[in-house]
Hints:
By secondary structure, the chain is an alpha+beta fold. It contains nine helices and 15 strands. About 30% of the residues lie in helices and about 25% in strands.
Amino acid sequence: xxxxxxxxxxxxxxxxxxxxxxxxxxxxxxxxxxxxxxxxxxxxxxxxxxxxxxxxxxxxxxxxxxxxxxxxxxxxxxxxxxxxxxxxxxxxxxxxxxxxxxxxxxxxxxxxxxxxxxxxxxxxxxxxxxxxxxxxxxxxxxxxxxxxxxxxxxxxxxxxxxxxxxxxxxxxxxxxxxxxxxxxxxxxxxxxxxxxxxxxxxxxxxxxxxxxxxxxxxxxxxxxxxxxxxxxxxxxxxxxxxxxxxxxxxxxxxxxxxxxxxxxxxxxxxxxxxxxxxxxxxxxxxxxxxxxxxxxxxxxxxxxxxxxxxxxxxxxxxxxxx
Length: 322
Ligand code: COA
């Protein structure tokens, strides 16, 4: 038994912000950002919420598969930037799209969130608990970014991507590897609320994303190829057998190049969209999947690897037949 992705969808905020636009806010340049990251522009919310973007992505994924919202049993949203603590984004999305039968909840594993949510949905379906699931990665990181910090504000973008997966009788290759290392969590942080009650008031460290870029870079180029090889070994495959690596880390093209090199693969096998959308954390993989599917680049039977890494620290990889 396995699961099959039968529909994809994505949604980006309308407003596009170029590197030149950012150069008006902080001391940077289009040249610096392109050379160090590969990013040219990103979409930034001017009111679109995580729930609204998620709902739009879900509706497109359902339309793509020709499936009604009422058929969905499970609705998972991976996000680290919800507008509210409760209700969770997944319940808001359920209400908007009318997925009345679904059980809905959120999951936060930062940039690895979509993969961890896909794995969770896979486990539910593999054990026969649910048959049809919407899995979403969605972020409005622009509300967590310090717009005076040139080291981080140039990297991130807002958006949402969704896939509709269903239980399938085929024995497709579907292997997951997941890892977490909380002892290194300090290299990428963002506080939300301070503790303030009648008995204590603890000041907030910072409500904005704080990142040790070099530490994350070094972690990514080492751990991602390792975990991709681990997942491939479980599937009885090698990197040469893979048609396409849908790498999460659309944060930096240099990271992608370095991972391709470590895996001894042509970088052409690693599609990128970071030039147009930046790093959208958990939304990156499903948005890229949707773009590739709509462009006709994902063909039935292709061997695909997805991999993500981010705050936590968390990282993981998935091997599947498209
Ligand atoms: N424009 C111009 N100069 C900038 C800049 C910007 N936007 N951001 C940083 N700089 C400067 C720094 O101040 C520093 O100047 P100094 O040498 O005078 O101190 C210099 O550029 C080099 O900074 P450094 O941080 O070493 O650059 P880098 O080559 O490591 O690139 C990142 C920075 C953030 C692009 C890179 O480290 C990275 O992509 N890391 C991974 C981040 C990531 O993946 N995050 C998401 C995880 S979910």
